[in-house]
Amino acid sequence: MAVKGTDLVKLMPKKQGCKDCGFPTCFAFAMKLATGGTEVSACPHLSDEVREQVEELLAPPIRPVTIGTGEKAVLIGDEEVMYRHEKTFFHQPGIGVLVTDTEDPNEQERKIKAAEEMQFIWIGRTLKADLAVLQCASGDKGKFAGLVKRAVEINDALPLVLMADTIDILLAGLEACGKDKKPLLYAVTKENIDEAISKLGGAEVPLAVKAGSLEKIADLTEKLKEAGVQDLVIDPGSRKMWDAVRDQILIRRAALKQGFKPLGYPTITFPCQMADNPRTELAAATALLTRYGGIICLSDLSEDVLFPLVVLRMNIYTDPRVPMAVEAKIYELNQPTDNSPVLLTTNFALTYFSVANEIEATKVPAYLAIQDTEGLSVLTSWSAGKFNGETAGEFIKKSGIEDKTKNRKIVIPGLLARIRGELEDELPGWEIVIGPREAAGISSFLPELAGKA
Ligand code: SF4
Fold this sequence. Notes:
Layout: H1 5-9, H2 26-34, H3 48-58, E1 65-67, E2 74-76, E3 94-100, H4 105-117, E4 120-122, E5 125-127, E6 131-135, H5 141-154, E7 160-163, H6 167-177, E8 184-188, H7 193-200, E9 207-210, H8 214-226, E10 232-235, H9 241-256, E11 268-269, H10 278-290, E12 295-298, H11 303-316, E13 330-333, E14 342-346, H12 349-362, E15 366-371, H13 378-383, H14 389-399, H15 401-404, E16 409-412, H16 420-426, E17 431-434, H17 442-452
Parallel strand pairs: 3-6, 3-12, 6-7, 7-8, 8-9, 9-10, 11-12, 14-15, 14-16, 16-17
Antiparallel strand pairs: 1-2, 4-5, 13-15
C-alpha cells in the first residue's frame, strides 16, 4: 500500500515558512516525499523517532534483497502489484540449482558450471539461471566448506545460497566464501533464532527464515527486525505445489493489500522438494514463478526444464507498458555488397528477429532497414501513424543506405502494400517492391528477388 502524503503531513513539524527543506510548506514537502520526489533527510527538524516513523511508512511494501555482488547479483522483492497488468513486475525471480556436499564432485562441478554456461539467446537476450544453492547434506562442516570453496573456484561471480541445519555449519560456509560475497544463509528457524541473531546478526548478509506457517514466519521476522536484521527472505515451509502457491499469494497479498510488514519480504521456494520427476518439478517451478516466488530452486539444470522457465520468466517480467524494441538502424546480413537489396520493417523486437532470421537463412546478402516505430509492430505502427510513406521515406533518406548500395530496390512488408505510392513519392529513383505478408515468405521471396537483380 503506497503511503499517502496526507499521512505524512500529520507527522511533520509544521514550522510554517521555514523552507529549510526547499519546499514552501510542510504540506508541500510531505506530498513530494510520498511520491519519492525528495528525501526525508531534507527536513532537519524531524526528531529521530519521527524520522524512523516516516522511513517506516515510506519503506517499500516488499523489501528489496540482494544476493551476491557485482553484475551477477540477484535483486529480488520490491514489488508493488499483485498482477502484472496493474503496473509491472520489477525484479524477476532468481533461478538456482541445488548442489549438495554429498554429490559426486563431477556432478557438483557440472551443475555449478551449468548455472552460468547453460544459456539461451531469445529475442536478443541471454537467458540463464542465476544462483547455486549449496546444501550441507552430510552434516559435516568441513565437507560443506569444501563445497563452498570449490563453487567459488569454479565461478567466483556466481551468487550463492548456503543451506545447512545448524548455524555453525552456515558459519563455516560463510567463512569459506567470505561474507563480501553476500550469500543468502538458509535458514533461521524458531529453534536457532537466538543463536542466529548472536552469531549471524552482524554478518551483514541476507538471511532466509523458515517456519511451518505464515504466523510463525511473522513472529521470526519481527524478532529479527527488532534485532536489527533487515535483509530477510522467507520460506513458509510448504512443500506441496498448491499449498506453496497459496502461501505465496497470501504473503504477497498481506504485504501489498494489508501493509503487513512482517511478511513484506521476498520468498525462496523449492520445486526440487515438491516433485520426484523433472516434469512435475517444472510444473511446480512454473506455478511458483507465475505466483511470486523470489528464488526458484531446481534439483538440476537441463535444457528442457530451464528453457521454458526462463522464457516464461522473461515474458512475465518484461514491462507491459514498454514494447520490446531493437535499435533502429541499417543491419547488414549475409555480408551485403554495394548491389544488395534493402528490406524495410519496424523495430518491434519480434518483427526484427523473425525477419533477420529468415534473411540469414536464405544466405542472400541484404540490408535490413529497421525504422524506429517505438517498438510497435507493422500494422500497429501504421495505425498509429508511425510507419507510413512519409516516415519511412524520411528514415531511408537519413539512414545513409544510399551510400552503401547502388541497388535501388526497397522491399516493404506485404501487410503495408498500401504505402507504396506514398513511399515512391518520397523516394524518387527507388523501386518499391511489395514483400511477403509474413516473415516466413522471405525464404522463397528473397532468393527470387536476388535472382532477378
Ligand atoms: S524543513 Fe521541515 S519544518 Fe521546515 S518547511 Fe520543510 S518540512 Fe516543514
